[in-house]
Write a structure and sequence with these properties.
Length: 292
């Protein structure tokens, strides 16, 4: 009887320990269930940090473009630096552009007429802004100011060609950052004509030039640095931008809008191609001022 009592006591003790373990396990499980999941919080913080980093690099990329050296000062006797500013309650238009001094050569009127009547078309810009606002909820649209900004870089090539690059900063309603787009024009001082891709490059050479551009892009990507998220240019994108280039005595620089060649937060807006690398696609005629 004595031994039986001892056995019963031992069984009761073991059972109590098991119950305590189960209760403890259940408490831990309940505690874990009630604890906030830290993984999502870390992801949110990381996403915020990434957005902040991108904002910094976008601003840096745009600032580098604005600080890019051109020949505006050297050409001040030839050009008039014009400004046009419109400030309304819900939008701002701020254009800066060059006009040529027609007293130097009356043929420069062709350049000025095009810039004034077709490119710097403030009336059309205002209509575009108002149309964009009308497509949005009127209450929401009234909370944002639209901003349209145009500035330029200008270059003189071997006293015969004038290269003008317009860069357009568009700040749309609700956007976190302005987007950049480009238009380039090359003007022949002698003929008074605007030169296009076909004046400098062989007919049907677009595909060959895309290969050369993509080779340069891939070389920059392989080196890392700022081109880590850039990509090859598609033939379609190049065809739309093939006239967006400025000239130099030793290279041609093609410009592409945001997110055509690189995302807005990295890379560059342009690719420089040395003339010596373009001999296979450049026209060999004497009328081509880039032939050397």
């Amino acid at each position: 009887m004595k031994y039986l009592s001892l056995v019963l006591i031992m069984l009761l003790l073991v059972n109590c320990k098991n119950e305590k373990r189960q209760d403890s396990s259940q408490s831990i499980e309940n505690l874990e269930d009630n604890l906030p999941i830290s993984k999502d919080t870390v992801q949110i913080v990381d996403a915020h940090d990434q957005d902040l980093d991108k904002s910094i690099t976008i601003a840096s990329k745009q600032q580098k473009l604005k600080e890019k050296v051109d020949e505006r000062e050297a050409l001040k006797a030839l050009i008039f630096d014009k400004k046009y500013l419109v400030e309304k309650n819900d939008y701002t238009i701020n254009f800066r552009y060059p006009l040529l001094n027609e007293s130097v050569n009356p043929i420069y009127q062709n350049f000025n007429t095009f810039i004034n009547n077709y490119y710097v078309n403030v009336t059309q810009t205002e209509l575009d802004i108002l149309e964009n606002k009308s497509l949005c909820d009127s209450i929401e649209a009234s909370k944002f100011r639209e901003e349209r900004f145009i500035d330029y870089k200008i270059y003189n090539v071997n006293d015969q060609l004038l290269s003008v690059l317009f860069y357009k900063e568009n700040f749309y309603s609700g956007a976190m950052h302005p987007s950049y787009s480009f238009d380039a024009f090359n003007f022949d001082f002698n003929s008074g004509d605007f030169m296009t891709y076909e004046n400098f490059f062989n007919q049907g050479s677009e595909d060959d030039l895309v290969i050369l551009i993509n080779k340069s892009i891939n070389e920059k990507i392989s080196k890392g640095d700022l081109y880590y998220d850039c990509w090859e240019l598609s033939p379609e994108d190049f065809f739309e931008s093939k006239n967006n280039f400025v000239l130099n005595d030793t290279y041609i620089e093609f410009y592409f809008d945001d997110c055509v060649m690189c995302p807005s937060y990295t890379g560059s807006y342009s690719i420089k191609l040395p003339l010596v690398d373009l001999l296979s696609v450049l026209k060999k005629y004497d009328t081509n001022p880039l032939v050397f």
